Fold:
Amino acid sequence: MSMLRPETLQVVAQSLGLDDLSPTCVQELLPEVELRVREVIQDALKFQRHSRRAQLDPTHINQALQARNLESLYGFTAPGAVKYRQCEERETLFFAEDEELELAEVLNAPLGQIPLQPMLNVHWLAVDGVQPLIPENESIEDDSTCHTSIKDEAFVNSVDRKPLVKHVLTEEMQLYYTKVTEAVKSDDFELQRAAFSSLARDPGIHQLLPYFSRFIYEEVKHSNHDLSLLFSLMRACRCLLVNQNLHVELYVSSEGYWPSSLLLAHPLPSNWLHQLIPAILTCVLGKQLCENPADDHWALRKYAAQLVAQICERYGETYANIQARVSKTYHKAITDPVSLDRGASPSLSPPALQDIVTLLYDAFGESLLPYIRPEQPTSMLDLCL
Structure:
C-alpha cells in the first residue's frame, strides 16, 4: 500500500499540464513515485548524518537531488518555517502561502548592482623588510596621531601594555645562534670549521644576520686583545660575506654613530658605518690586537684588510660612500700625528705602505711627471709622499 495519496499525484500532474491523467495510470505511478521519493529521503538523511545536523532541512534534500543529477528545489531554503494555507474549496489540500506583490511595483523597482567578478591581484607586502607605499598596503601612521577618548587613569593603568616585538626568532633559530656563537669563541678547530661552513652555505639564516653582525661588533669591541678570537670573528665575517643567500649589504651600508673607543684613539666622524665595517677596520687599524707584541698580528690585519677590499669591491657601486669613507679612515690613520704616536698606524707595515705608494704612482705618476721641476726629487716615495 502506497503512502502517497492519489490526489497528490493528480495535483502535481495538473501543475505540469497533464489534466487528463486517468485513475488507473495514477495507481500505477504511485509505487514508482514513492520509491524515488524514499531514495531521495534516504540520501538526504545520509547527508544530514555526515554534516552532523540534528534536523533534516531542505539543504540536505538539494544535496541528495544533486547527487542523482536532478534539479534542486527552489524557494524552500529560506530561514524560518514555511507557512501553508488550507484550500477553501478542498479542506484536504494545502499550499504554501506566498506574499502578494503588485506587478507595477516590481516593474518600477530600481535594478540592483551587478556583483563584481572574482579576480586576483598580486602586490608586494614587503621588499627586503621595507613595506612599499602602494594603495594595496595599509599606510603606516604615526602612533602619536592615534588618540583615545578614555581619560580615566584607573582604566588606563589597568591595561596591560606589551612591548612591540619587531623580530621574533623561533627556538630552533635561537639554539642555532647559540651553538654558532659558542663555536666561534671556542678553541675546537673541528667545531669552528663546521660553524664556518654553515655560515657560508646555509640559506636559512637570513633572520639571524643582524644578530651575527651585532655579535661580531660586540666581540671585537670587548675582545681584550685576544688574537685567536679576533681571527675567528673575521673568519665568521668572511663566511657571511661569501654566502650568496644573505643580503649583507643591508648591514654593510647602515649609517650611525661609530664609537671612538672602538677603533682609533681619536674620534672619527659620527656618521660612520656601524655594523660590520667598524669591526673589520678595528682589526686593520687597531692600536693593540694582542697581548704579546711578538705575536703575528700582521696576518690578522692583512686578512681584515682583504675583507675591507672585498666589501668595497662588491658594494662600492651600490653604495658610493663606502670607498670614500674607508679611504678617509686609512688616510687619517697614516697622516694624523696623534694616531702615529698612539700606535694606530703601525697596522700598515712598510711593505704595505710600499704597495700603496706603488699603486698611487702607477695611477698618477705619468700625469704628474710633466709638472715636476728638475730640482725636485724623483724617487717613487718622495714623489707620492
Summary: The chain is about 50% helix and 0% strand. The chain has a mean pLDDT of 74.
